[in-house]
Please model this.
Amino acid sequence: MPTERIDKLIVAAGLASRSEAKSLIRLGRVLVDGIPVRDPAQKIDPEKQNLSLDGEAVCTAKYRYFLLHKPAGVLSATEDSRQQTVLDLLPPELRRIGLFPAGRLDKDTTGLLVLTNDGELAHRMLSPKKHVEKRYLAYVEHEPDPDAEIRFEQGVILGDGTKCLPAKLERLGDGLVRVIICEGKYHQVKRMLALCGAPVIRLHRESVGALTLPDDLEPGEWTELDAKTIQKALEYR
Ligand code: URA
Model:
C-alpha cells in the first residue's frame, strides 16, 4: 500500500480536522508503532505500521463498512434538518468520513442496512444486474391472493406500469410472509404485496446477499465489518 501522511490519516478516520490533527501530532499524542511522531508530514505504510491517538488505534482503512439494525422512525439519509437519520445513530467521528446508506429502507421499515463510503460496493449491492437478494419479512393485513406467488415469479406490474423483476413470495402463516427481491424500487415490497391483496402492516429486512443481522444486534445498534467479509457476503451465489 502507498504511504500516507499521518495528519491525513487522522482526518480520514474522522478524528479531527486537518489543523486539529496537526496540533495533536505536535503535542505528541499520536504514536507510530508506539513512538510519538511530532511531524504531521511524516508518512507511514498503513498496512504495515500502527497509528494511534491517545492510546487508541486509528483505523486507516480507506473504505469502511457498517451493518446497522435500522430502527423504525429513522430516515435512510445522511442528513435532514428536522428528522433523525441513520447517520445520527453513529458516533461523531464516524459521521465525518463520508458514509452513506447503501440503499434505502422506508422510515417505518426496520432491519439490515449497510452504511459505507465505498461507492463501488454500494453499486454492486444495489444493481439489479448483480442479482443480490434482499429478503424481507412482512406482516400483512390479509393473506396474499392465491395467485400471488405466480405473479411474483412472473414479475409484478406496479400501478404505474413498471414491471418488477421476478421475485419470490413465501407464506409463513399468521399474516407473515417473506419476500425476496433483487432490486429496490420505491416502496417496492409494500406496492407488490398491496397489489396482491396483502397491504403491509410492518416490514423488516432480514438480509442482503449472505449478510444477516447478528441475533444480538438490537434496533439502533451497529457493528463494523471488514472489507473481506462484506465482499464475500455479496458473492454468495
Ligand atoms: N420495500 C418497501 O416497500 N419498503 C422498504 O423499506 C424496502 C423495500
Remarks:
- The helical segments are 6-12, 18-26, 119-126, 148-154, 188-195, 227-234.
- The pocket of uracil is lined by residues 105-106, 109, 187-190, 203 (CB under 6 Å).
- The chain is about 20% helix and 25% strand.
